[in-house]
Write a structure and sequence with these properties.
Helix content: over 70%
Distance between the termini: 18 Å
Number of domains: 1
Largest sheet: none
Structural class: mainly alpha
Order of helices and strands: HHHHHHHHHHHHHH
Radius of gyration: 20 Å
């Protein structure tokens, strides 16, 4: 590994990350251990937060306001909690990566400047660490599905597809934000607003059908350009096949996820020398 410059290019850095996969595993285990070592409930906190958020929104919109039919769209109101939770778990993974990957380089200066590994492993490690929490929540979704009487069909096979697409997108985001934050510390402050924007601009609380009915075509195109829209719809489709993404949305999601990954890796590679100087 050639220090600071990224070696022989982006391709060699990708290969370098693969060769440093044992280091990546160590970083993931370390991040998870540090996060929960002082906690009595440990990993349960990664489940309590999304469940709590889901129950609050369910109580407000379904129980108090009584907008079940409007929010659920083609989803049975009795199963809206499953629709809601499948989107919230995906959002929590995204939210966690954005929060932690932003400081993935600035918070690990000593390791970055002393370890002879591709620096990409540090933000990528945050993506994998938070994915472990997401995967821990899947049994909760299955339990909710059984409770509300959801159908189990072959559409459940889209879950790993959605997971891989979201991981691809988040790795690109993590690489982009972690490098930019070293050069522009305002990025970290901007993230607080981005969390809310992501939550309300993806079909988590409401069906995509409502967006298609109320927004003009040009606004729908902007809305659907967000790869997370297709990802969340895939998570929903695992339980509710009627909301399976259209070919156009699915293509946008796949292309958007891979473009984000490539863009994030290129920006990280270009900024790496300046980032090391700044650190």
């Amino acid at each position: 590994m050639q220090d600071g410059s990224g070696g022989g290019g982006v391709t060699s850095n990708v290969i370098g990350v693969w060769r440093a996969r044992n280091v990546l595993k160590y970083l993931v285990r370390r991040d998870l251990a540090l996060k929960y070592q002082q906690s009595v409930m440990g990993y349960l906190w990664s489940l309590i937060e999304p469940i709590g958020i889901g129950l609050i929104y369910y109580f407000v919109f379904i129980v108090v306001i009584g907008r079940g039919e409007r929010l659920a769209g083609t989803i049975p109101t009795s199963q809206y909690i499953l629709y809601l939770m499948s989107g919230i778990f995906a959002f929590m993974w995204t939210n966690g990566v954005i929060s932690e990957a932003t400081g993935a380089l600035t918070g690990q200066k000593s390791l970055i400047t002393t370890m002879s590994v591709p620096r990409e492993v540090f933000p990528i490690g945050r993506v994998f660490a938070r994915s472990a929490e997401f995967l821990a929540g899947l049994p909760i979704l299955f339990a909710i599905a059984i409770w509300v009487g959801a159908d189990f069909s072959w559409y459940l096979l889209v879950l790993p597809v959605a997971f891989l697409l979201q991981a691809t997108f988040l790795i690109g985001v993590a690489l982009l934000l972690s490098s930019l934050n070293v050069m522009l510390r305002d990025i970290e402050r901007f993230m607080r607003m981005l969390h809310r924007l992501i939550f309300y601009s993806t079909p988590i609380l409401y069906p995509l059908q409502a967006v298609e009915e109320h927004l003009p075509t040009w606004a729908q195109m902007i809305y659907k350009a967000n790869p997370l829209v297709g990802v969340v719809e895939l998570y929903h489709a695992a339980w509710f096949p009627q909301v399976y993404p259209s070919p156009g949305l699915l293509t946008t999601c796949v292309l958007g996820s891979f473009i984000t990954l490539v863009a994030g890796w290129l920006v990280f590679y270009r900024l790496e020398p300046a980032v090391l100087k700044e650190l």
